[in-house]
């Protein structure tokens, strides 16, 4: 737990209050309890949830410090969606929709939102069926969900309408970008990950079919 500090959170996310830090620490404890029974993340990464999952998610707040309408697709155990919900609590009028079709995971997300009174709601649908329910998000996020080309297919209705994607990707991201340009044109900014020396956050905007 040495990496679990307000300083480490602010380094990843930018300005964050002590209260939000304390709430994220409480969330981590709650997450660990649930993870033992419903496997929210791989057990191999459960030993360092703070560094591997919370800080990795929180860096999106530094990349996009102003947007207030977010959607996280395939939210799973809440990374980055729930973490962003805690951080968005410090932005006036901000909220995030968490799209998750797995009933047990959606139930976990709902429980956390209720317990911490987060500015978030669960959309318990398949991503393909959620577009009409989530109107005009400024930011679409996804982490450990699918290849970039699949992510673009899933989030196209929002991205074509002016939304931007912030997608966590690992060391093979260049091949995924190359595959995607066969079907889509987009503006791309690569943000080096602050938690993974081989990782990036891909910021995509102005999506158009080829």
Could you list some keywords that capture this structure?
Rossmann fold; globular; about 210 residues
Q: Mean pLDDT across all residues, rounded?
A: 94
Which series of helices and strands comes N to C? HHHEHEHEEHEHEE
Class by helix and strand content? Answer: alpha/beta
The level 1 CATH classification of the domain at 64-209 is Alpha Beta
CATH topology of the domain at 64-209: Rossmann fold
Q: Enumerate the spans where pLDDT stays under 50 for 5 or more consecutive residues.
A: none
Q: Number of helical runs?
A: 7
Q: Work out the number of β strands.
A: 7
Distance between the termini: 47 Å
For the biggest sheet, the summary is: 7 strands, mixed
What share of the residues does DSSP label as strand, in percent?
15-25%
* Bulk shape: globular
Textual characterization of the structure:
With about 210 residues, the chain is α/β, with parallel strands linked by helices. The chain is built from seven helices and seven strands. It has helices at about 5-15, 20-40, 50-65, 80-90, 105-115, 150-160, 175-180, and strands at about 70-75, 95-100, 120-125, 140, 165-170, 185-190, 200-210. It has a seven-stranded mixed sheet, sandwiched between helices. A hairpin with a 7-residue loop joins strand 6 and strand 7 (about 200-210). The protein is globular, with a radius of gyration of 16 Å.
């Amino acid at each position: 737990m040495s990496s679990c500090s307000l300083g480490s959170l602010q380094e990843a996310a930018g300005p964050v209050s002590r209260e939000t830090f304390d709430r994220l620490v409480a969330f981590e404890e709650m997450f660990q309890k649930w993870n033992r029974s419903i496997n929210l993340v791989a057990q191999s990464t459960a030993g360092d949830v703070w560094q591997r999952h919370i800080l990795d998610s929180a860096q999106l707040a530094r990349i996009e410090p102003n947007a207030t309408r977010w959607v996280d697709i395939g939210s799973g155990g809440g990374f980055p969606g729930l973490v962003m919900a805690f951080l968005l609590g410090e932005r006036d009028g901000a909220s995030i929709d968490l799209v998750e079709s797995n009933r047990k995971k959606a139930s976990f997300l709902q429980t956390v939102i209720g317990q911490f009174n987060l500015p978030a709601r669960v959309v318990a649908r398949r991503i393909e069926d959620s577009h009409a329910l989530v109107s005009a998000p400024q930011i679409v996020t996804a982490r450990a969900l699918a290849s970039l080309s699949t992510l673009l297919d899933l989030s196209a209705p929002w991205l074509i309408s002016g939304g931007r994607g912030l997608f966590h990707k690992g060391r093979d991201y260049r091949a995924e970008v190359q595959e995607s340009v066969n079907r889509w044109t987009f503006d791309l900014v690569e943000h080096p990950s602050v938690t993974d020396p081989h990782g990036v956050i891909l910021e995509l905007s102005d999506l158009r079919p080829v």
